[in-house]
Amino acid sequence: MGYNKHLIQMKKTIYILMFFSGMVSAGIQAQQYVISSPDQKISAKITVGENVYCAITCEGRFVLMPSPVSMTVNGNRLGYRARVKASQTREVNTMVSAVYGVRAQIPDHYRELKLDFEGNYSLLFRVYDKGVAWRFQTGFKGKVIVNGEESEFRFDGWPEGWFSEGNSYETLYTLKKIAELDLQKNYFLPCVLNTTSGVKLAIVESDVDDYPCMHIRKSPGFNVNLQPAFDYYPLQFKQGGFNNYILEVTQRAGYIAYTDGTRSFPWRVCIVAPRDEVLADCDLVYLLARPQAIQETDWIKPGQVMWDWWADYVLEGVDFKSGINTSTYLYHIDFADKWNIPYILVDWKWSDGQDLLLINPEVDVRRVCAYGRQKGVGVILWAPSFTLDRQLDRVLDSMAAWGAIGVKVDFFDRWDQLADQMYERIARACARRRMIVDFHGCYLPCGLHRTYPNIINYEGVLGNEVNKWDKKVTPEHKVTLPFTRMLGGPMDFTPGGMRNAVGDNFVVRNTLPFTNGTRCMEMALYVVYQEPLVMLSDAATEYAKEPELFRFITHIPSSWDESKVLEARMSDYLIVARKKGNEWYIGGINDETMEREFTVPLSFLDAGKQYVAHLYTDGVNTDKIGTDYRYTTREVSSSSSLSLKMNRGGGCIVRIVPR
Q: Can you tell me the distance from the alpha carbon of 273 to that of 281, in angstroms, rounded to the nearest whole number?
């Protein structure tokens, strides 16, 4: 161990010596700039010499070693031997109003450095109390080709991190050392690094506009550096993938983007987390995104959704054959109306996947939408992305005329520039018709939901649907997501399963599937996860069997006024408190390694007021039957504390209401 520490320190010393000696040997007089966060704890140190370098420290400790910041446009490398023409600094301290989310008002407080370079381009750096972001801005004429980005993220020592790999964003986050990454593979954002300083650093992006999504990969050479990776610009396509829903790329160019020469490029964001609760409650992606493009938003309403597909269209005790048919959807509307659930989802196969106006004769979609409107229940219709984009105006006009209030757009499965254009094109077209959007088979949210808040949720996550065919969605995975995937924003995980099991008791099946974890863990996801449009995934008749419990679930808000992290350790446990109106909810989730108990002070309650806490906690027998829970109540105030115990793979949920 002592030898490893010596090797790490020696490597760090060699790297810093090489960094500065490289400046000297090139005969370059380096210019240095330092900009700190408003609370003075985080600093970005910018060096302009042979290259532009950015280093990040947290309370004096390096979390990012001096790392090159560079991109190549029309064959010219921006940031190489750059000459600063002017520099400007400013501080901004304001509030951003959110249409939905985990808080209604988001503080936007940062310090900014702008470096203008010869050659008509700039670099913009912002430092927040929770991280550092930078972006290029260019003032070139006409269209340009972006050949690539040559930046790196350089680290000290032998850091490990949580990385997501696979063919889509619907994958696990695996803890491994950078040195163990495959040089030939790209890894999806976000990735979260355990730096040798003891501070975690998460890499994300924001304001991806007319540009491919950034991935990450191991840099050749040193085994501790990461670099950006992108899908190249598409040139030729064929229809393929699952059910021919996807426009697959068969030929790509040797560059990543063809775009306007005068523009701002995406933010590259490093979230700096000396404590894990920073990761579990971070708004930087939202704050860095383009401001709202929709002026009137009163029609955008978060809420719960009755879903047909997950339970395999099962309805018990009805006098018709349940399935993809009109009777099933009319039943869902009546059920939603009875329980004050604002939406139902009509998932795939209500129409032809290649022609959305060729309607399944078993589904009278006009009647379903009209009945929903009569009952005050919004109907959301499913569509594959390529088909919808090809028929965009015709289909959306028809959906709006029928009375549908939104669309679930599925099977993007691409992350290049033209795919990014498709997301915005669909969101904009839906906004013109006052229709909400739920993206599935999609990329990580990177701020478009701020610009178009009618994008009310994204999948981009390994969620409960996988329980129908695999055991990957474990309690540990569910606890990891708030510290990783949720850094991007809303996450359509689809909670609400009523058959709950822990460990070997969990069973994979398609019809009426299980969830891995206790009943209280599953309920707590409605509080812990950010899901403005949130599924009630199970069968209506399953919920009807437990009316008191279901009534509690339907009262849980899906958008909040205020949020606080009470306890957090990445991948192990998380307890949060969220407020809506004059009520507070507490949600806690725990991995499967051990049971845990916490004493949670309620100091966030209004002083001098009395409240009643309604507690759902794990029962003593969840190791055998995951549905076991206890319901209790107690009177509380701001001076009270709650003892919250969570079993293995367990959770807890509390509703606190004024007396």
A: 10
Query: For the chain, what's the residue count?
Result: 659
**pLDDT tens column, 595-641:** 999 999 999 999 999 999 999 999 999 999 999 999 999 999 999 99
Comparing C-alpha atoms, which of 292, 283, 269, 265 is closest to residue 450?
292
What element of type H or E holds 389?
A: helix 385-390
Query: Which two three-digit tokens encode residue 659?
Result: 């007396």
pTM of the model: 0.95
Going from the N-terminus, what domains does the chain have, and what CATH number goes with each? 2-279 (2.70.98.10), 303-560 (3.20.20.70), 583-658 (2.60.40.1180)
Report the pLDDT value the prediction gives residue 168, as an integer from 0 to 100.
Answer: 81
Per-residue pLDDT at 10: 44
pLDDT value at residue 28: 64
Give ∠ CA 395-396-402 in degrees, rounded to 5: 90
Q: Which residues pair with 576 in a beta bridge?
A: 565, 587
Contacts of 551 (CB under 8 A, 6+ apart): 339
Residue of 101, 505, 104, 450 whose CA lies nearest to 289: 450
Residues facing residue 57 across a β-bridge = 43, 62
Let me know: does 412 contact 442? Beta carbons within 8 Å: yes
566 CB-side CA count, 13 A: 24
User: 310: closest CA among 88, 534, 9?
Assistant: 534
Burial class (CB in 10 A: 0-12, 13-18, 19+), 321: exposed
Dump pLDDT digits (tens) for 373-420: 999 999 999 999 999 999 999 999 999 999 999 999 999 999 999 999
pLDDT of 25 reads 46
Q: Is the pLDDT of residue 7 over 60?
A: no
Q: What single letter denotes the amino acid at residue 203? A: I
**What is the amino acid identity at position 488?**
G
Hunting for tokens 């029928």 — which residue is that? 402
**DSSP-derived secondary structure for 243-295:** GG-EEEEEEE-SSSEEEEEEEEPPEEEEEEESSHHHHTS--HHHHHSPPPS-S
Q: What confidence score (pLDDT) does residue 165 get?
A: 84
Backbone angles phi, psi at 519, to 5 degrees: -60, -40
Question: What DSSP string describes 504-565?
Answer: GG----SSS--EES-HHHHHHHHHHS--SEEEE-S-HHHHHTSHHHHHHHHTS-SS-SEEEE
Q: What is the pLDDT of residue 217?
A: 95
Q: What CA–CA distances, in Å, run from 584 to 20, 68, 187, 562, 603?
A: 53, 45, 37, 9, 12
Residues tagged active-site: 410, 465
**14: confidence class by pLDDT, cuts 50, 70, 90:** very low
pLDDT recorded at residue 167: 73
Pairwise CA distance, residues 164 & 203, whole Å? 12
* Cβ partners under 8 Å of residue 356, min gap 6: 383, 387, 388, 391, 395
Segment 243-261 shows an average pLDDT of 96
CA distance 377 to 364: 16
